[in-house]
Amino acid sequence: MQSLLSATPNDRPLPRALDLLTSLQEGSLSAEALLNQTYQTIERWNPAVNAICTLLPLEAVQGQAREIDRLRARSQPVPPLAGIPIAVKDLAATAGIRTTLGTPLMKDNVPATDCLLVARLRAAGAIIIGKTNTPELGAGSHTFNPIFGTTRNPYNFDLIAGGSSGGAAAALATGMLCLADGSDMGGSLRNPAAYCNVVGMRPTMGRIPTWPQVSSRFARMAVEGPMARTVEDCTLLLRLLSGPDARDARSLHDNHGIDEHLLERDTRGVRIGWSAAPAGLAMEPALRSLLEQVPETLARLGSEVEATALTELLGAMDVFKTLRAAAYAMLAGDLYQRGHQEMKPTLTENIKLGFEQTTSDIYTAEKARTAMTAALAELFERYDYLVMPTTQVMPFPVELEYPSEIDGEPMHSYIDWMAVCCILSPFDVPCASVPAGFSTEGIPFGIQIVGRPGDDQGVMQMAYAWQQQTQHWRTPPTLG
Question: pTM value?
Answer without folding.
Answer: 0.96
